Each structure stands twice: as C-alpha cells, then as structure tokens.
Amino acid sequence: MPPLPAAVRRVCLGVSPPAVAAVAAIAAQLLPAQRRLRARDVVRKGVGDFVTPVDLRSERRLRAALRRALPEAGFLGEETDPADLGRDWLWVVDPIDGTSNFAHGLPHFAVSVALLHCGDPVLAILHAFPENASYLAMRGNGARRNGRALRMPKGRCDDGAILGCQWFRGQQDLRFLAALQRDGGRIRTLGSSVTQLLDVAVGRLDANVQEQGRVWDIAAAGLVVEEAGGRFTDWQGRRVLPFADLAVEHTPTLAAHPTVHRRLQGLLANVTVTRK
Fold first, then answer.
1. For residue 126, pLDDT beyond 80
2. Which residues contact 64 (CB under 8 A, 6 or more apart)?
3. Is there a domain that residue 55 lies in?
4. What CA–CA distance (Å, rounded) separates 29 from 37?
5. DSSP string covering 83-115, please?
6. How many domains does the chain have?
7. Are residues 116 and 15 in the same domain?
8. What is the pLDDT of residues 211-222, one digit of tens each?
9. Statement to judge: residues 71 and 25 lie in one domain
10. Rounded Cα distance, 202 and 195, in Å
C-alpha cells in the first residue's frame, strides 16, 4: 500500500498511544467480567443478536477515551448512537466482537478499534482472545502482533486447508460452502469475524469467507489483513477498503494470501451471495 500523506500519518502517530492504552484497558477487564456474567445480564437486541452490560460499558469508555485523543473525529460503534459521520475522521468501534461467545463463556472474542480518514481505515488497534494478543496496523506501514512485525504465511488451498466461514443466521442456502470444499478444505466457524480475520493474518486459518459483516466487524481487522500482505475483497475480488458507504448493512468478504485468494475467488465465481 502507498504511504499515508504526511498530515494523516502525523494524526495516526499522535493518537496511537492513547488509543492503544484504551483498548488494552478494556481488554484487561474482559476475562474477569466474563466470569462474573449472569444469564439475566444478556439482553436480546434482535434475532440472534445480543448485548451485555460489559459491551455497553466498554463502548462508552472507549468512546470517551478516543474522543479525548482526537476530538474532531466522529464516532460509529455497534452499541451506541453514531455521531458526526460526515467528518473526515471517524472512529469505528466494536467493544466486543463475538458477544454471543462472550456471553456463553466461549473463548473467541475481540476488542476492535479503527480510525477512518475519508472512509479509509488508516489505523487499526485490536485485542483478541483466546490468544490474548494485541494487534496494530497503519495504512502503508505494516501490521504488528504484540509489537512484532506480522507477515501473512502463504497458506494453502487443498485437503489440508482450514477455512473460516460465517453466514447469515438461519441461512439455508449454503452452496458457497460446497464450492469452498471442492479442494478438500475444512470449514470452521468461530463466532467472531475479527478473530477469524486475525487468524488469517497470522496463518491459523488459510482464508476467511463471510456472507455478512458490518463496518465495525471488518474495518480494523481488514486493515490488518491487508497490511500483513493479504487480500481483503468482496467475492468478486473488489477491494472492500476504503468504504464507499458506511450505511451498508452487510458486506460479503474474502480474506486470504493472494495465491489462496485467487483460487477461492474462482471457486466462488458462480455462487450467488445472499444479502439481507
């Protein structure tokens, strides 16, 4: 990716330390909070969509910390009302990606923060469980995991491949899974878009294919994938980032090393994407 304009880079470098600290503070409290969570704390937002007091509290704290770091930025989060979406700078936050996992005591969930400039994620700060690892990426400046440079392994697309997948709740038309398994690859659904995309970046998954994903699900992790050397596109191979429309409900995505990406895109060429 080309380097950021100097002014944009300066902003990213300036806000990184407080934003990293804010994400780390939220991440540090999640495992104790998960152990204390009770069934009555889990509230239904919609069909198959839930929230806990921990989500709400985490997003409020992140929102306050990020506003202090960059007061001129708008805010888009999963759990609270958006603000100033038309501004050049925009924070995009998912305080707990994988809330259903979190609420059921399952280990896969993540904190995700992205800073967008004119619709393009230019800074990503995440903390993922169960690996308990932090991720940082800046547009054109690479990605890091726990402070060390991250480069995506080549991956594979054969009977030894492990492919992350997610689809719409209640979806019965799963022909894309059959297409993906044509080379013998095995499917995994871990319940968190962010952790699955990060698993691609580090090589635990050979690819991730999803019918669905909101802006806050994919903005930060998608940047990590790209900065680690992978491709992050829709099923037709068009780049997802920058976002053309923040109001889009869901975006189908394909994340993989370029070699694996080409093969999987070919397998998906004649598959219709279910949209909701």
1. yes
2. none
3. yes
4. 12
5. B-TTSSEEEEEEEEETHHHHHTT-S-EEEEEEE
6. 2
7. yes
8. 999 999 999 999
9. yes
10. 11
179 and 250, same domain (yes or no)? yes
pLDDT value at 210 more than 90: yes
Domain boundary among 104, 123, 150: 150
CA distances from 216 to 116, 173, 248, 263 (A): 11, 25, 11, 27
The CATH number for 223's domain is 3.40.190.80
User: Where residue 276 falls among pLDDT bands split at 50, 70, 90?
Assistant: low
- The first and second tokens of residue 114, run together, are 């992205």
Together in a domain, 64 and 112 = yes
Whether 273 is in a domain gets the answer no
Q: Which domain holds residue 124?
A: 6-150
Above 80 in pLDDT, residue 172?
no
226, two tokens: 């790209």
Q: Is the pLDDT of residue 274 over 80?
A: no
Q: Is 233 exposed, middle or buried (0-12, 13-18, 19+ CB in 10 A)?
A: buried
Amino acid symbol at 246: L
Strand, helix or coil at 27?
Answer: helix
| Range 145-148, long-range pairs (CB < 8 A, 24+ positions) | 145/201, 145/202
182 and 127 in one domain?
no
pLDDT-above-70 percentage for the chain: 98
Q: Tell me, yes or no, whether 275 lies in a domain.
A: no
